[in-house]
Amino acid sequence: MTIHWVGTGLSAIPGLRRLLTGKTPVVVWNRTVEKARAAVGDLAQDIRAYDPQALTEALAAGDVVVSMLPADQHPALARICVEKRAHFVSSSYISPEMAALEAAAEDAGVALVNEVGLDPGIDHLMAHELVADYRQVAQKGDAVSFTSYCGGIPRHPNPFRYKFSWSPLGVLRALRSPSKSIRDGAERVVDRPWHAIDPYDAPLPVPERFEVYPNRDSTAFIDPYGFDREWTLRDFVRGTIRLKGWSEAWSEVFAEVEGLTGPEGDVRLREMAEGFWDAHAYAEGEPDRVVLFVRLAAERDGARVYDREWVLDAQGNDRGTAMAQLVSIPVALAVEAVLRGDFAPGVHAAPSAPEAIAGWLVEVGEIADHMAKVDHLSKP
Q1: Which of these, 4, 93, 296, 374, could form a disulfide with 130 (CB 3.0-4.6 Å)?
Q2: What sequence ranges are listed for the domain Saccharopine dehydrogenase-like C-terminal (predicted)?
């Protein structure tokens, strides 16, 4: 068996270095060999120029392909894996194209594992753990509220209230995307994130107020997270977190993005992204910060019967940025799990089994500067 790691970008290196120090051979693929060599050449014995045909020819049955490429390139790589009877791992959301490979993956006896980064990934683990924990006291008709907020933010706040650790174009495109969630028992659909910004008081060792907003379709995760249809769902929101003051600092960005349409709008969006990368990217060695808050609460007959929250706060260090560690280390954990045969053939997201969750969260806790499960009912 061989691990084929494709892409050595900003969020890839800590997890890749972990696998390079393991016992399974690793081939590192990157479009620019020199960049890969600069990042991991001290450990990697085999670095190759990436193109899909070369990778296809190198694959053998039982190998594992890790894609750190843009998400739209994952389905094509996964199809190659199915054809070659190799496994596949990525940190990205399961797209409809990826989900459609379920039967083919089962027939080929391979696992296509996705959503094993930070968000999606670690947030899934925490959600599954909370739901399993709550089930011990749950009753039919309980009014349940769930929120999950994650974001990369500057360790040292700046007037722009943000810095880019990945493509600004992706961030700007996300601002043009609608979202669907549940608030106060009703479906909440908004066309733009800034139409639904709320404050969030985080139970950190030093309490801190953030700004949060829903993204994508939160409701798509109600069933995967194992929510019981006999519970009354009051809130269900998966969203993004930003520093307090972000919405004010970005007000002019929102106004311009709102008016961009068609091909000309796409061109302008790329221009904005390039300018933001020049002005607001992290400098070499500059520490970043990642925060994640996943909370599940339930009421019965007007009284709160459950209210617990996973809290994570991580900062960049000499092992890499917080974002890179929290994205790529879980990816490496998924690769190790695939090699052990922990995933059955088919298309998968982050594991939901209690034993796997416990082990992965221990590893995540070693990355975080602070990670705790807060019981709000026991707080004074």
Answers
A1: 296
A2: 117-356
